[in-house]
Amino acid sequence: NHTHSVPRADDDWRSFLIGNARSFRQALLAYRDGARIHAGTRPGAPQMETADAQLRFLCEAGFSAGDAVNALMTISYFTVGAVLEEQAGGTVEQAPLSPLLRAAIDAFDEAG
Fold first, then answer.
1. From residue 110, how far is each of 6, 48, 66, 105 by CA, in Å?
2. CA 42, CA 11: separation in Å to the nearest integer?
3. Residues 12, 13, 16, 22, CA torsion sign
4. How far is CA 27 from CA 21, 38, 83, in A?
5. What are the pLDDT digits (tens) for 76-110?
6. Average pLDDT over residues 33-54
């Protein structure tokens, strides 16, 4: 389900990081408790090959190795945390949203 885990031929670093995060989010959401399950696993050899390709792409785009791994890990951790929140559900009554905040949330949801 994670269809943008490696850079595509037409990606620049921005489009790759955005596409990767959206694809990762969709993959986690595709399974009940997907984020919780993912958080409890450790990467194997195939994931290390993917990580190497991601890092190589970002370094070729001008990132230092440290900045590249920080960008990837930050986006990954944020995405897992956000999906954990989404999948937690809950029935807490929500305060009314301003039109601007509602539009922003709707745009986020539509973007995937």
1. 22, 31, 32, 9
2. 27
3. negative
4. 10, 10, 10
5. 999 999 999 889 876 556 778 899 988 988 888 88
6. 91
Residue 97: the pLDDT is: 84
Place of tokens 């809950």: 90
Are 26 and 38 in contact, with CB atoms under 8 Å apart? no
pTM (predicted TM-score): 0.81
Cβ pair 9, 57 in contact under 8 A: no
Contacting residues for 65 by C-beta, under 8 A, at least 6 apart:
55, 59
Query: Pick from 31, 19, 14: which is nearest to 83 by CA?
Result: 31
Distance CA 9, CA 23 (A): 16
13-111: CATH topology is Tetracycline Repressor; domain 2 (1.10.357)
Compute the residue count for the chain. Answer: 112
